[in-house]
Amino acid sequence: MSRLATGFFHGTAWYPELWQDCIDEDIALMRAAGIDLVRIGEFAWSSLESREGCYEWSWLDDAMDRAYDAGMAVLLCTPTCTPPLWLTSAYPETLRRDVDGRVFGHGSRGHGSLVSRRYRSLCRGIVTALARRYGAHPALVGWQIDNELLGDADGEYSDEARRCWHAFLRERYGDVTALNRRWATAVWSQTYPAIENVPLPGKTPFGCWTGRPVGKHHTSLMTDWGDFISSTARSFIAEQVTAIREHSTAPITHNAISPTRVLPEDAYADVDLAATDLYRTPDKMWTLASRLDLLRGSKMTADRTMRPFLVTETSPSQNGGTEGGHPPHPRGFLAAEAALMLALGGNAFCYWLWRQQRAGIEHCHGSVITAWGSPGLGWEDVCAAGRAIACLAPTLRAHPPAPADIAILHSRRSTAMLERGARLWEGLHPVGSLDEEVYRPLLERGIWRDRRSDTDDWTRYRVVISAFTPIIPDALVERMEPWLMNGGTWIVGPMSGCRTDDATVPVVGGLGPIDALAGMRTRWTAVLGAAHGSFGGREQHELVGYACGFEPIADDCRAIGIYTDGPQAGVPWAVERRIGRGRVVVLGALPRGQMGAVFDELWRESDLWQCRSSWGVMVVPRGRRREVAIAVNTSAEPGWVMWPPRGGPGKRLPIEPHAVRVLRMGSSPL
Amino acid sequence: MSRLATGFFHGTAWYPELWQDCIDEDIALMRAAGIDLVRIGEFAWSSLESREGCYEWSWLDDAMDRAYDAGMAVLLCTPTCTPPLWLTSAYPETLRRDVDGRVFGHGSRGHGSLVSRRYRSLCRGIVTALARRYGAHPALVGWQIDNELLGDADGEYSDEARRCWHAFLRERYGDVTALNRRWATAVWSQTYPAIENVPLPGKTPFGCWTGRPVGKHHTSLMTDWGDFISSTARSFIAEQVTAIREHSTAPITHNAISPTRVLPEDAYADVDLAATDLYRTPDKMWTLASRLDLLRGSKMTADRTMRPFLVTETSPSQNGGTEGGHPPHPRGFLAAEAALMLALGGNAFCYWLWRQQRAGIEHCHGSVITAWGSPGLGWEDVCAAGRAIACLAPTLRAHPPAPADIAILHSRRSTAMLERGARLWEGLHPVGSLDEEVYRPLLERGIWRDRRSDTDDWTRYRVVISAFTPIIPDALVERMEPWLMNGGTWIVGPMSGCRTDDATVPVVGGLGPIDALAGMRTRWTAVLGAAHGSFGGREQHELVGYACGFEPIADDCRAIGIYTDGPQAGVPWAVERRIGRGRVVVLGALPRGQMGAVFDELWRESDLWQCRSSWGVMVVPRGRRREVAIAVNTSAEPGWVMWPPRGGPGKRLPIEPHAVRVLRMGSSPL
Amino acid sequence: MSRLATGFFHGTAWYPELWQDCIDEDIALMRAAGIDLVRIGEFAWSSLESREGCYEWSWLDDAMDRAYDAGMAVLLCTPTCTPPLWLTSAYPETLRRDVDGRVFGHGSRGHGSLVSRRYRSLCRGIVTALARRYGAHPALVGWQIDNELLGDADGEYSDEARRCWHAFLRERYGDVTALNRRWATAVWSQTYPAIENVPLPGKTPFGCWTGRPVGKHHTSLMTDWGDFISSTARSFIAEQVTAIREHSTAPITHNAISPTRVLPEDAYADVDLAATDLYRTPDKMWTLASRLDLLRGSKMTADRTMRPFLVTETSPSQNGGTEGGHPPHPRGFLAAEAALMLALGGNAFCYWLWRQQRAGIEHCHGSVITAWGSPGLGWEDVCAAGRAIACLAPTLRAHPPAPADIAILHSRRSTAMLERGARLWEGLHPVGSLDEEVYRPLLERGIWRDRRSDTDDWTRYRVVISAFTPIIPDALVERMEPWLMNGGTWIVGPMSGCRTDDATVPVVGGLGPIDALAGMRTRWTAVLGAAHGSFGGREQHELVGYACGFEPIADDCRAIGIYTDGPQAGVPWAVERRIGRGRVVVLGALPRGQMGAVFDELWRESDLWQCRSSWGVMVVPRGRRREVAIAVNTSAEPGWVMWPPRGGPGKRLPIEPHAVRVLRMGSSPL
Question: B515 CA to chain C: closest CA distance, Å?
Answer without folding.
Answer: 12
